[in-house]
Design goal:
By secondary structure, this protein is of the alpha+beta class. It has one domain. About 40% of the residues lie in helices and about 25% in strands. The protein has a 3-stranded antiparallel β-sheet, covered by helices on one side. The chain is elongated, with a radius of gyration of 24 Å.
Length: about 120
């Protein structure tokens, strides 16, 4: 068996510092993106709650949008506006979806864009 000197075993101090710097960078990016994903969860739960809300039945499209915006305002969601809420009629049902994107400055001239819009809910007319 080959014997390696004790000085050549393990990681060097520079490689440990590089790994810690990379982990710190990833953690900093996660902290910047987390609020947007939290808002996305709030929007998704608002849409799910809309299906069981009794105030939606018989309400106009404009009233449904106002109801959604009020709920999002209570949840402190500022990125969603009335333009992001889409309501499509299909017979006795309406399909409500919210599609929007959020942009956050990361470092230097690098921005991250997070796109939300894969959720939709059916409500009674």
């Amino acid at each position: 068996m080959l014997k390696t000197p004790k000085l050549q075993r393990g990681m060097t101090g520079i490689s440990i510092m590089m790994i810690l710097a990379l982990a710190g960078f990833v953690l900093a990016m996660a902290f910047k993106l987390f609020p947007f994903y939290l808002e996305g969860f709030k929007v998704s739960s608002t849409l799910k709650g809309l299906a069981s809300d009794s105030r939606v039945e018989g309400a106009s499209d404009r009233e449904v949008k106002e109801l959604i915006l009020k709920k999002l305002q209570i949840d402190d969601v500022d990125t969603v506006t009335s333009d992001h809420i889409k309501i499509e009629s299909s017979g006795k049902k309406r399909i409500v979806s919210i599609e929007y994107e959020a942009r956050v400055h990361m470092v230097g001239n690098l921005d991250a864009v997070v796109v939300f819009g894969d959720k939709a809910v059916e409500i009674e007319r």
